[in-house]
Amino acid sequence: MTTVQEHYDRHLGPVYTWMAGGIESALARGAAELDAIGVPPRGKGVAVDLGAGFGMHAMELARRGYRVIAVDTCDALLDELRANAVGLPVDIVHDDLLAFARHLPGKADLVLCMGDTLTHLPDEASVATLVGAAAEALAPAARFVASFRDYSAALSGVRRFIPVRSDEQRILTCFLEYSEGHVTVHDILHERDGSQWELSVSSYEKLRLAPDRLATFFEEHGFVVASESGMSGMVRLIATRS
Fold first, then answer.
1. Which of 18, 38, 88, 184 could form a disulfide with 177 if both were Cys (CB 3.0 to 4.6 A apart)?
2. CATH of domain 4-150+210-241
3. Which one-letter DSSP state was computed for residue 117?
4. Would you tell me how many other CB atoms lie within 10 Å of the CB of residue 162?
5. Helix or strand or coil: residue 116?
6. Is pLDDT above 90 for 242?
7. What is the pTM of this model?
8. CATH 2.20.25.110 placement within the chain
9. Residue 191: beta bridge partners?
10. What angle, rounded to 10 degrees, do the helices at 124-137 and 211-220 form?
11. What is the pLDDT of residues 130-161, one digit of tens each?
12. What gap in Å lies between CA 8 and CA 189, rounded to an integer?
């Protein structure tokens, strides 16, 4: 089993934009999600995108007027963001999520942690640490918005096999194995090489974080929390700093 960073650097990062449906489709979904959580079309201030990847949300935030601090650990994805965000106010940061505050120019007006990024943290203590750092970094009435998959209820049988995406050149499927506090994700990638299919498999752990547990962490730091359905079957929590 690999670490999260190794998994993305060696396996998932190079195909992640394809997995997301291509850059234009992904950016359109990112813009739709910002609309859904009420990010204004003409914003201002500092926004933090944790697990920014290739910029699905970061680029649209910048187009809406925010100075964006885009944090990730995958070089391949950050290189894509760097190439696509030319001329936009996006500060690209290669660092751990928990260290985001050291890169802020002042108080943040919005923190996003979308697309299952939270479950990449190793344990609930790390999630609590991140929420605490956000409470210190956010301006009054600012928001922390997180989306993630609820792995707290284990799938069984064939439901553990999840088709992600396929076309004439690639097929990506994941398989889930559950332990007490984590789920092991096996990403199974077939890629066509001429007339042959090449198989590569990599596995890593995700945290089984329950939505009500995350809500508790927010409330302990004085946030007012709303929970709703997010995109692609995820749960979305919107926490407002009081």
1. 184
2. 3.40.50.150
3. G
4. 12
5. coil
6. no
7. 0.95
8. 157-206
9. 170, 198
10. 40
11. 999 999 999 999 999 999 999 999 999 999 99
12. 13
In sequence order, the 6+-apart residues with CB closer than 8 A to the CB of 48 are: 68, 69, 71, 100, 104, 108, 110, 111, 112, 137
Output the CA torsion 200→234→72→163 (10° steps).
10
Tell me the one-letter amino acid at 136. E
Beta bridge pairs of residue 184 = 177, 205
Q: DSSP of 146-211, one letter per residue? A: EEE---SSPP-GGGGEEEEEE-SSEEEEEEEEE-SSEEEEEEEEEEEETTEEEEEEEEEEEE---H
Q: Both tokens of residue 210?
A: 């329950």
What amino acid is encoded at 226 in this protein? A
Query: Are the CB atoms for 225 and 234 separated by under 8 Å?
Result: no
Q: Where in the chain is the domain with CATH 3.40.50.150?
A: 4-150+210-241
CATH 2.20.25.110 fits 157-206, yes or no: yes
**Residue-level pLDDT at 1:** 80
Q: What are phi and psi of 98, to 5 degrees?
A: -70, -15
Q: Give the model confidence (pLDDT) of 21-32 as tens digits.
A: 999 999 999 999
Query: 227, 209 in Cβ contact below 8 A?
Result: no
Spatial separation of the C-alpha atoms in residues 223 and 242, rounded to whole Å = 6
For residue 54, give the 3-state DSSP assignment. Answer: coil
Q: How distant, in Å, are the alpha carbons of 123, 158, 183, 184 from that of 180?
A: 12, 20, 8, 11
